[in-house]
Please model this.
Amino acid sequence: APGVAPVVYGQADRPPRGDYSRASDDYTCAQDYDAYTEADHDTYRRLYERQSALLPGLASQHFIDALPSLGAKDRIPRFEEVNERLRRATGWEIVGVPGLIPEVPFFSLLANRKFPVTDWIRKPEEFEYIVEPDVFHDLFGHVPLLFNPVIADYIQAYGQGGLKAAELGACEMLSRLYWYTIEFGLIREQGGLRAYGAGILSSSGELNYSVRSPEPQRLPLSLERAMRTLYKIDTYQHTYFVIDDLQQLFDLTAADFEPLYRQLRDQPTIAADALLPGEVALQTSAS
Ligand code: PHE
Ligand code: FE
Model:
């Protein structure tokens, strides 16, 4: 997938690429800036250039407005430079990781307003497609919206909720919500649909597909529905969930999820492309 939640990586049938011997107990590591080659910086520059040109009309204005805060476009930014601005904006910081990390350390970082960013970049032959998140997905896809106060609080609350879900054995349900919001969420803006999910925003193909293609179905976000819905990690999504505004996302998830987990545990999962009786998919044109 163009970008995947760390919880997903446990499902991948190949080992992650990163060198975990570099990481401390909390799985973070220093950004190995000297390890980047000129070709690495060039890959970032080309990805940034192509992707930022695709954003108008497809990406959420919240994202477009925040993107310049990332800083350097012509090379991989230093995490410390990004952090100077990010700490001031929302009190978040980014921390380097060697790649996917397990659920509990991931949730702990988020609960402490630390967002893990993979420090290595894809190889040139993976320009179009990569199955693990790299520094481009993590930085370009996720970090701009950490400058937004509503998303900043949402992701921290998600991390706290994740620690609780881990105790309740509910990580799978919660990770589906992450998938369908933080990674692949759509939002209504200016009379149309726009993407705010990082997996879409860092993908050249899925950006247009998710917003404009008649193929996938789009449903208004419902916690119950999203938490039961399986997802694809190696194709474009079959179903996207739409929110009306960022505050709705925050408000929908404010309640204690424990009763919800208990209720959902007895219900079957829903296939990635299923439309249930009574459900009406949103029209792209009328969106
Ligand atoms: N309110 C959720 C709980 O009690 C936590 C949460 C917040 C989950 C935000 C997702 C997003 O578990
Ligand atoms: Fe991601």
Remarks:
- The pocket of fe (iii) ion (ligand 2) is lined by residues 3-5, 133, 137, 141-142, 183, 198-199 (CB under 6 Å).
